Amino acid sequence: QIQFADDMQEFTKFPTKTGRRSLSRSISQSSTDSYSSAASYTDSSDDEVSPREKQQTNSKGSSNFCVKNIKQAEFGRREIEIAEQDMSALISLRKRAQGEKPLAGAKIVGCTHITAQTAVLIETLCALGAQCRWSACNIYSTQNEVAAALAEAGVAVFAWKGESEDDFWWCIDRCVNVDGWQANMILDDGGDLTHWVYKKYPNVFKKIRGIVEESVTGVHRLYQLSKAGKLCVPAMNVNDSVTKQKFDNLYCCRESILDGLKRTTDVMFGGKQVVVCGYGEVGKGCCAALKALGAIVYVTEIDPICALQACMDGFRVVKLSEVIRQVDVVITCTGNKNVVTREHLDRMKNSCIVCNMGHSNTEIDVTSLRTPELTWERVRSQVDHVIWPDGKRVVLLAEGRLLNLSCSTVPTFVLSITATTQALALIELYNAPEGRYKQDVYLLPKKMDEYVASLHLPSFDAHLTELTDDQAKYLGLNKNGPFKPNYY
């Protein structure tokens, strides 16, 4: 039985964060404009007929789904089984709790990237008793074979790689607007599903028991609703949990930045001059990886604390304009907009590589490059050469969208950590007694963060040291945790 003794209190309210990331982005900008395409073995152009126009049924005769090709289900199932091998903690949670069915009666509508790893999460929620309807949070991130496997297993999934913007909202609406089925929980990534339900189906929104949001953009939208007094349900900010920030953002990007750059450009990093814009958790991971391969790394920062950390880690902190003429690679990871402008792009050296590791495509001013005097040449998948009149070329990756999910993949193990956190947050919100959570945004308690971490330790054959009673009394801690204060 999953219990967090003495910690089933109200989640610590997390103060609104402002400053670095814009809070006013449009609903569609974070998803239909953000090109976050996980690697898929099926191409979105293999069939020109829109899935919306196809009549498909799974082996059980159900047509309650819309995917690219249901015949790819067997291949997708193998992908999911491979992902399960490196998501042992989530599978462990599934085995521990499926007897109790803590999500029995839960009707979860979800909007996330649909990959083999998120499929493991979806099937875990179903094993714990939930009914799920799912759409993709990004028009390019869906693995078609995985969506087919979920549909074959009976999940009402509406997603395919290469959706149009109209398709994107149609898929979300098909998940929400169902006769005889009304969602009572939301799992979101980016906030589009939440805002669609809020604006289009206010009566459904009022009956939602809890929202779990994992992205910075979606969390900011929730805080906006809360600040305006329009958030009428409790919401969980998973993005700022320790297990999300310290692992997904830092360690995941430390490995996937190299993967994405190598697959697209075959670049050798030794001796290359690289500027990383932003030294948050993502920036720290990128810099550590690049430094390890012998690159000369510069950092740009607006925050003096992050800038000082970069200095102490051995990186030179500069303004982008000071090094833009000499660097070989420019990487953005600030979450801001117009970090790299047309002026910067005009001053770059020939063959400079430009890419983004931030949440959306707002960091690089790609729109300014779509002018008559510049020529675009697609040299391989997700790699464009933008050619100036004098022959200079800038290598633009994924059209300025999220590099790792557009051009490679992300480590399954890290996604297990995030997925386990999401599952526990849904369980807690759904089973919380009335009055525990008010109409506000809450941060995951450290006890639950530590539980997620503990589930992943057996993968490394790690053995925790236990406090003695005397030591615990000396530190003022419970022997079983939490060991971190809520403000950590």
From TrEMBL:
<feature type="domain" description="S-adenosyl-L-homocysteine hydrolase NAD binding">
    <location>
        <begin position="249"/>
        <end position="410"/>
    </location>
</feature>
<dbReference type="InterPro" id="IPR020082">
    <property type="entry name" value="S-Ado-L-homoCys_hydrolase_CS"/>
</dbReference>
<keyword id="KW-0554">One-carbon metabolism</keyword>
<feature type="binding site">
    <location>
        <position position="214"/>
    </location>
    <ligand>
        <name>substrate</name>
    </ligand>
</feature>
<dbReference type="GO" id="GO:0004013">
    <property type="term" value="F:adenosylhomocysteinase activity"/>
</dbReference>
<feature type="binding site">
    <location>
        <position position="244"/>
    </location>
    <ligand>
        <name>substrate</name>
    </ligand>
</feature>
<dbReference type="Pfam" id="PF00670">
    <property type="entry name" value="AdoHcyase_NAD"/>
</dbReference>
<comment type="pathway">
    <text>Amino-acid biosynthesis; L-homocysteine biosynthesis; L-homocysteine from S-adenosyl-L-homocysteine: step 1/1.</text>
</comment>
<dbReference type="GO" id="GO:0033353">
    <property type="term" value="P:S-adenosylmethionine cycle"/>
</dbReference>
<feature type="binding site">
    <location>
        <position position="248"/>
    </location>
    <ligand>
        <name>substrate</name>
    </ligand>
</feature>
<dbReference type="InterPro" id="IPR000043">
    <property type="entry name" value="Adenosylhomocysteinase-like"/>
</dbReference>
<dbReference type="GO" id="GO:0005829">
    <property type="term" value="C:cytosol"/>
</dbReference>
<feature type="binding site">
    <location>
        <position position="404"/>
    </location>
    <ligand>
        <name>NAD(+)</name>
    </ligand>
</feature>
<keyword id="KW-0378">Hydrolase</keyword>
<dbReference type="GO" id="GO:0006730">
    <property type="term" value="P:one-carbon metabolic process"/>
</dbReference>
<feature type="binding site">
    <location>
        <position position="115"/>
    </location>
    <ligand>
        <name>substrate</name>
    </ligand>
</feature>
<feature type="binding site">
    <location>
        <position position="189"/>
    </location>
    <ligand>
        <name>substrate</name>
    </ligand>
</feature>
<dbReference type="Pfam" id="PF05221">
    <property type="entry name" value="AdoHcyase"/>
</dbReference>
<keyword id="KW-0520">NAD</keyword>
<dbReference type="InterPro" id="IPR036291">
    <property type="entry name" value="NAD(P)-bd_dom_sf"/>
</dbReference>
<dbReference type="InterPro" id="IPR042172">
    <property type="entry name" value="Adenosylhomocyst_ase-like_sf"/>
</dbReference>
<feature type="region of interest" description="Disordered">
    <location>
        <begin position="1"/>
        <end position="63"/>
    </location>
</feature>
<feature type="binding site">
    <location>
        <position position="301"/>
    </location>
    <ligand>
        <name>NAD(+)</name>
    </ligand>
</feature>
<protein>
    <recommendedName>
        <fullName>Adenosylhomocysteinase</fullName>
        <ecNumber>3.13.2.1</ecNumber>
    </recommendedName>
</protein>
<comment type="similarity">
    <text>Belongs to the adenosylhomocysteinase family.</text>
</comment>
<dbReference type="InterPro" id="IPR015878">
    <property type="entry name" value="Ado_hCys_hydrolase_NAD-bd"/>
</dbReference>
<feature type="binding site">
    <location>
        <begin position="280"/>
        <end position="285"/>
    </location>
    <ligand>
        <name>NAD(+)</name>
    </ligand>
</feature>
<feature type="compositionally biased region" description="Low complexity">
    <location>
        <begin position="24"/>
        <end position="43"/>
    </location>
</feature>
